[in-house]
UniProtKB/TrEMBL annotation:
InterPro entries: AcOrn/SuccOrn_fam, Aminotrans_3, Aminotrans_3_PPA_site, Class-III_PLP-dep_AT, PyrdxlP-dep_Trfase, PyrdxlP-dep_Trfase_major, PyrdxlP-dep_Trfase_small
UniProt similarity note: Belongs to the class-III pyridoxal-phosphate-dependent aminotransferase family. ArgD subfamily.
Cofactor(s) needed: pyridoxal 5'-phosphate
List of residues binding pyridoxal 5'-phosphate: 105-106, 138, 225-228, 282
Name this polypeptide is given: Acetylornithine aminotransferase
Gene: argD
């Protein structure tokens, strides 16, 4: 295979916000994509856990072309039946009763944060409400979600940050309880059921049971960020189903529209506190995006994708585990749920996650790091047994190099 590191295309008009791999993808079909040199790759990134149905899925192609010919965008000044239909679908397949539509994960989390603050002011009578989040979390790049994100590297140079956020270690109930007891006006606890960007770290059952109990006892909202973990990614509709609890509020985005931008904030009836004028989004829940999410949701049901994700996730997990067994000097463990898996490197390994991702690209496999020490695997939910085997084979080629 040709070497990868030719110089990247000149992009003088773009802000250089991204460290890009020197690859230009121009076409996709299913779990495969092709670059401008005609090279084929297995896509185990899927737009970072976003292209749930892979690329150019016939259902999505058909639905999008139908919808764009009929009506793609109208204002929320008017009734949008597809929005109502999608909200009904999502509430039928979750513990939520009400939905607000946005366009991204950060925007969905912003909505959740605003909802929590309105709850604090109007129900609890708090003037300075606090939201507790976890260290190593990731909630987005807008100012409030960047503040909620418990990773100082994302916050540097962007202060003053939004007030009212406090961080605790993840999966540590003692630390959380202590912080709740010390603070006066805790409105909400915001957590990922499984930390994605922070290193594919699953939430622990006992921890989340304890968090739910603590929230119930003290009238604190439990908000879950399901942006990466939701919509079938873990082999359940929502990651929280793996923790035996239900949140009061949760957010969704990434896989929700299968690559068409859409986000959502979902909540129980009693926390549906927004009144007309409180919150809005021009694009939020437009017909095209809602049709995409409905198409993804219906495909998950009709193609039985939840059980497929469980099986393919198990296959991937076991295949990766063979590398841990074979190379305990390089690898610490494999962790994750369903098709959100991470191969965790030892700090003493002779390479970092980014190095392996580079080498895998050269072998025809797209992967994405989750921090310097974790190689993340998030293929489309439609990935086949043969494609998982092929990905493991190409990973093997990259590791043996
Ligand atoms: C990606 C991600 C976000 C941010 O989503 P955007 O659509 O990029 O704004 C928020 N939370 C989690 C858990 C994510 O993985």
């Amino acid at each position: 295979m040709t070497t990868l590191l030719e110089s990247p295309p000149a992009t003088p008009a773009l802000m250089p916000t991204y460290n890009r791999f020197p690859v230009t993808l121009v076409r996709g079909a299913g779990c495969r994509v092709w670059d401008d040199q005609g090279r084929e790759y297995l896509d185990f990134v899927a737009g970072i856990a976003t292209c749930s149905l892979g690329h150019a899925h016939p259902r999505l192609v058909q639905a999008m072309s139908d919808q764009i010919q009929q009506l793609h965008h109208v204002s929320n000044l008017y009734h949008i039946p597809l929005q109502a239909e999608l909200a009904a679908f999502l509430t039928r397949h979750s513990g939520a009763d009400r939905v607000f539509f946005a366009n991204s994960g950060a925007e969905a989390n912003e909505g959740a944060i605003k909802l929590a603050r309105k709850y604090a002011h109007t129900v609890k009578g708090y003037e300075q409400p606090v939201i507790i989040t976890a260290q190593a979390s990731f909630h987005g790049r807008t100012l409030a979600t960047l503040t909620a994100t418990g990773q100082p590297k994302y916050q540097k140079h962007f202060d003053p940050l939004v007030p009212g956020f406090v961080y605790v270690p993840y999966n540590d109930l003692t630390a959380l309880t202590k912080t709740v007891l010390e603070l006066e006006q805790v409105a909400a606890i915001l957590l990922e059921p499984i930390q994605g960007e922070g290193g594919v770290r699953p939430g622990e059952w006992d921890y989340f049971q304890g968090v739910r109990r603590l929230c119930d006892e003290r009238g604190i909202l439990l908000i879950l960020d399901e942006v990466q973990s939701g919509m079938g990614r873990t082999g359940r509709w929502w990651g929280y189903e793996r923790l035996g609890i239900e949140p009061d509020i949760f957010s969704s985005a990434k896989g929700l529209g299968g690559g068409i931008p859409i986000g959502a904030v979902l909540c129980k009836e009693q926390y549906s506190l927004f009144q007309p004028g409180d919150h809005a989004s021009t694009y939020g829940g437009n017909p095209l995006a809602c049709r995409a999410a409905l198409t993804v949701g219906q495909a998950i049901l009709e193609l039985d994708l939840l059980s497929q994700v469980q099986q393919r996730g198990e296959q991937l997990h076991q295949g990766l585990n063979e590398w841990v067994t074979a190379h305990p000097d390089w690898f610490q463990e494999v962790r994750g749920w369903g098709l959100l898996q991470g191969l965790v490197l030892r700090p003493s390994a002779p390479f970092q996650a980014g190095d392996i991702v580079q080498r895998a690209i050269a072998k025809g496999l797209l992967l994405v790091p989750a921090g310097p020490q974790v190689i993340r695997f998030v293929p489309p939910l439609i990935v086949t047994e043969g494609e998982v085997n092929l990905a493991l084979e190409r990973l093997g080629d990259a590791l043996k190099q």
